[in-house]
From TrEMBL:
Protein name as annotated: Glycerophosphoryl diester phosphodiesterase membrane domain-containing protein
Keyword terms of this UniProt record: Membrane, Transmembrane, Transmembrane helix
Transmembrane segments: 21-52, 72-99, 127-147, 167-185, 219-248, 254-275
Domain Glycerophosphoryl diester phosphodiesterase membrane, first and last residues per copy: 15-287
InterPro entries in the cross-refs: GlyceroP-diester-Pdiesterase_M
Organism of origin: Streptococcus parasanguinis (strain ATCC 15912 / DSM 6778 / CIP 104372 / LMG 14537)
Amino acid sequence: MKRSYWQDLKGAFYLIWRNKWSFIAIGILLQFVVGIGAAALTWLFHLAVLLAGQANIDKNNLVSVMSHPLSLLALLVFIMVFAFLFMLEMRTLISVIYLSRTDRHLSFKKVLRQSFGRLKDLAGRNLLYFLLYLFLTLPVAGVLIGSTLTDGLYIPTFITGEFEKTSIGSIGLFVVQLTFIYLNLRLIYTVPNLVVEELPFGRALKKSWSMTKRGVFRLLWRILSFEFLLTFLGILLILGLVFTLTVIDKEGQYFWVETIFLVLIRTFLFIFTVLTKVGSLGIILDSAWEVPS
């Protein structure tokens, strides 16, 4: 049975409020693991560039790096590590949402084993599907639901800068970005299909495309509404912290007050990111699957 607009919003806020400490703890653990993985990815990428005899990568040496055998091997390892971390993060978040509905606890060791086991699904054609998914996600990373890894990715400025030099190029770039956002909407169920349905990447993509023939903009509206309300509450909290700071230290003379304030802001932003991602994923899951209750 389809849920109403208000049921989805109420369900998302109830989900994050009821399980906030569990989600924050999982978020900290994921941040630690993915952070180490991101450092390894950075090292692998630099290794791929160095193996091609280059100091960095730009529009002049891109082909040289991509055509060097050792660089290609390093990039293949990069892709497999990226895929593992991607599956680990998204599988953990979706699993913890499901388990929170039944008051069961998450086995991080089991999630690690399952994420590693799914790497075999990226053999052959499914690897190409995964690369296609990353290619479509990269231009709008952070706009819709994505991994912490993809949130930090962006198209190099030496590519977008060429288009932004002219008005027609800027308009064309804007149209392309809208197109990528639409494609990401159509593929929004890809990751849940990987975890919930245990589908290979290619079938997960195709099923998501089929599932979003109708209702995709209604789903987007509900996700944006949830994020807007959560952002509004976050702004109120930050304003409260600022007001408290001005009361305690009107002249800005106490370094320890400013330090505590900055730590609280950074902590809040981290918590906000985790709860936003979990709440939005909860709406996506509830829109297509009967989540245990």
